[in-house]
Amino acid sequence: MTLIKQSAMQLQPETIAAVTGPDPLEYVTSCELPMPWATFTLHAFVESQSGKEHLALTLGDVSDGRPVLGRIHSECLTGDALFSQRCDCGAQLESALRSIAAEGRGVVLYMRQEGRGIGLINKVRAYRLQDAGADTVEANHELGFQADQRSYSHCKPMLEKLGIVSLRLMTNNPRKIDAVKQYGVAVAERVSLIVNRNPFNRRYLQTKASKLGHLIPDEDV
Ligand SMILES: Nc1nc2c(ncn2[C@@H]2O[C@H](COP(=O)(O)OP(=O)(O)OP(=O)(O)O)[C@@H](O)[C@H]2O)c(=O)[nH]1
Ligand SMILES: [Zn+2]
What we know:
Residues 28-191 form the GTP cyclohydrolase II domain. It is a single chain. By secondary structure, the chain is α/β, with parallel strands linked by helices. It folds into two domains: 4-111 and 152-220, GTP cyclohydrolase II (Rossmann fold), CATH 3.40.50.10990; 114-149, no CATH class. The chain is built from eight helices and nine strands. Strands 1, 2, 3, 4, 5, 6, 7, 8 and 9 form a nine-stranded mixed beta sheet that branches. A hairpin with a 5-residue loop joins strand 4 (38-47) and strand 5 (53-59). It is globular and about 50 Å long. The chain binds guanosine-5'-triphosphate (GTP) and zinc ion. Guanosine-5'-triphosphate is lined by residues 74-76, 87, 89, 92, 113-116, 118, 123, 126, 130, 136, 140, 171-173, 176, 193, 208, 214.
């Protein structure tokens, strides 16, 4: 395994008010983050009013104007940190980081919108309803939420702060591409990110494809 080590990107703390509207986003600081595949730079952002914290991981020179291999990842504590097999999030995150390390250049925005925006506790409630037979969309509706409550309004200012002009976005979700484009993020290309089909997430992947429009070929669910 080649461990890529690059010097951390140096950026100044800044409140990025103009582009984010009522809840300005602050760029706080950065540090090196050695990971199994490369040493990334970890950038810390915070929403001024809500206090919600978001992260970005960069590798290499992402501010040279060329499209950057990138992932806009929504927090999934159960999948990203606890190895849950109910979804594909943890495997997608790892795969994205590996691909970026292989290219020596890229970005992950780690957005703290757990449970497609309903929060961790409500996601556990939704999982319980799924244990009783609901699918992921029905469970959200039963709890009084929309199927997907995420907002991508902070992505553009985060990318701008990092000097990133456009993305080669790793995702299977066309609605995510439309949503980030609405906020001015340029997506030069979609890069498919299909990983970790298993008996526990089969129905989740099927529902994502049939009800949420994800581009997952039949043979992968
Ligand atoms: N409410 C709810 N959220 C879930 C469930 N399973 C995963 N999530 C959350 O869904 C988010 C990930 O969304 P996905 O729809 O899996 O994928 P995506 O980010 O839209 O699309 P990709 O870019 O292709 O990964 C994370 O915030 C997870 O915590 C579930 O059953 N219910
Ligand atoms: Zn997940």
